[in-house]
């Protein structure tokens, strides 16, 4: 079987959630070397340094198909008005072509599979950038019609796709994400953790949020909750907010100023992939009070690093966290505050939660995910 992957999302700068999921899937499939693989991308005006990042995929049985004469943004815009065939740029058909970021363009030969991670642009449009909202509204429904199968990452997201796009249930397959246990684990040394802390100028104990700084992540209420916590417990660890600036991030910085807690809250920006597990290992608590998630990878990554988790009780997060996290109403800052206070005060409960997290994360492996994906491909070829 020849499987093609559209890897354009790898050329958009620093990898975030969806790109890391795609990376893990492709890496796992290539490692098993069961089939032939082709990686498709437009590379016009892409920096050489970015292209060098693709070399790790260039192994036996993998063909890198680069379109050097056309720009991906121009292609995306053209596709809104003219169904320019994808095959013009990437040649002979693959048996299956896999897309990772919602959209399937026109004119893809062979079987077509896409991954739709969530329906935030429909369910909570006010939390999504206008241009993203417009693009997804234009293209997702068409992509679902073009798809032979749609992969999604949770039962919650499956129900959302059915609700908003009216896709037949039998067309959707749930493939939960996995945790890369070669990166996210508890075996980092104290020196490695301390070195990572020093790199981001983190002193002492800390409570950690790690993710994009944007409205959907509910960081404003997180800051309100933390402000209440240090009123109750002035000796509570400082709060570290890690992640790149997303849409409407300015309000988050203003909130810290309004609460007059600049000396207790530290913004450290984008965290390099190698440093993320070390900072998770070093944290006293990991906070993830997001209002809406298709899956919620950071919860499992924190659990894998032996860090107790406080999570929102909405969307897919209870499905992912199970009984291994404190689940709170993300709209209630008092509830978030109380969860932090209780976790800091009760070490027995803290250790119980850490152990539960270690067990929970074992259910989510990329090997399991790939078995589901292979099954999808094989059934499509038999059809």
Automatic annotation (TrEMBL):
Keywords: Transferase. The keyword Nucleotide-binding does not apply. Coiled coil: none annotated. It comes from the Bacteria. Residues 111-181 form the Glycosyltransferase subfamily 4-like N-terminal domain. Residues 194-358 form the Glycosyl transferase family domain. GO terms for molecular function: glycosyltransferase activity. GO terms for biological process: lipopolysaccharide biosynthetic process. The keyword Protein biosynthesis does not apply. Pfam families: Glyco_transf_4 (PF13439), Glycos_transf_1 (PF00534). SUPFAM superfamilies: UDP-Glycosyltransferase/glycogen phosphorylase (SSF53756). This is Glycosyltransferase involved in cell wall bisynthesis.
